[in-house]
Please model this.
Amino acid sequence: MALQQKGMHGTWASRWTFIMAATGSAVGLGNMWKFPYVAGSNGGGAFVLIYLGCILLIGVPVMMAEVLIGRHGRQSPINSMNEAVADSNANSRWRSVGWLGVLAGLLILSFYAVIAGWALDYILLISSGDLQGINGAAAGAAFDNLLSNPGRLIMWQTLFMALCVIVVIGGVKRGLGIAVETLMPLLFLMMLMLLVFAFLKGNFEAAVNFLFSFNLDALTWRGVLEAMGQAFFTLSIGMGAIMAYGAYMPQDANIGKTILIVAFFDSAVAIISGLIIFSIVFATPGIEPSAGPGLMFISLPVAFGSMPGGLLIGAVFFVLVSIAAWSSAISLLEPCVAWLMEAKSISRAKANLVIAGTAWVLGLGSVFSFNIWSEYKVAGFTYFDFLDFLTANIMLPISGLLITLFVGYVIKREVIDFEMQGTSDKVMEVWQFTIRYIAPFAISLVFIMGVYDKFFA
Model:
């Protein structure tokens, strides 16, 4: 068994490039439009503490497992998993884990590009001044106008997908590496600028109270499960992205320490986003805190439109959202592209066009779900709702669970020892205990509750 594999795609220029790439993959729309509201409505500081604990006990261990498999194989998630299965003399059925993650990533990319297109549209919409002094009803109408126009949605979807192709087509160092080394510092700089604006012009105190007031009475067992689910999904686990990025990780980088830094940055972005968003929301009379598209594309435009200098800051905010979406989307495109290059021995350019084209076509169903196909539902699902539920509630939890079981019980110990060199015995003991017992149990709960909520609640 060859413990040191040689990959065809290259490696990151440094450990910090991997950290920026993995953080870019993890930071996405969920950090901005879901976590802050869920935290505030589930006990504030009490929820945040539970969430951070779940990050350490679920997110970080599983992310380490994905990176371990990726770095061992030095290939796409599909072939890295094949390599790990073969080297461990395991049942060939374990190979399906790689396929499941990559397929989930492709499906997510197909509708994620559509949603990211909304943010691109709002950069121009808010910059034009059309949202100056707008009220909630008018903001809702503006958002409805966007969703009801398939041509407009397809235009932005196409532009966003093209931006992803431009990055991924350059390869690991000249494309992905340069992109994350540019985009992530820019994202952090813009967040700092928006945080200063929120502190000076928004209701910063109300935002702090909403996010961090320690209200145990508001934290229910349902809130604890929400924390588990958010900790699992926020780090891009189970969709092939982290395994693919792990394949390009330098061999001398310590997996545990590196992933802890990624988790810290991801959590920091979620918390800072909450402070920015709710400082602005609470500074505007008549707007209630919420989550999802309603917060991002209705409540915030109303708030920006009523504040001095708000339209400029609003445009900057939607640029920030677009960058976060872009950095996540390229991590979803890369695993499929890497596999197609390996399987068919074709160029990166051709592989990009095939995979991006496939995701674009699949995304048309999501575009039409908001307009011409909105009346067509199966079991209560539109096409978009079905893909969202299938990936988030079925495919990702199963993929994450299988990864924990494979690394916890199946993969050969010598593979683990080789990839985890430099990790203390105590950390190894804690990691292996969590990957064998705590993470599988928690992910199973997330999976069961996700299905229960949809069909039986």
User: Anything to note?
Assistant: The two ends are 49 Å apart (CA to CA). Residues 15-451 form a domain with the Amino acid/polyamine transporter I fold (CATH 1.20.1740). The chain has a mean pLDDT of 91. The chain has one domain: 15-451.
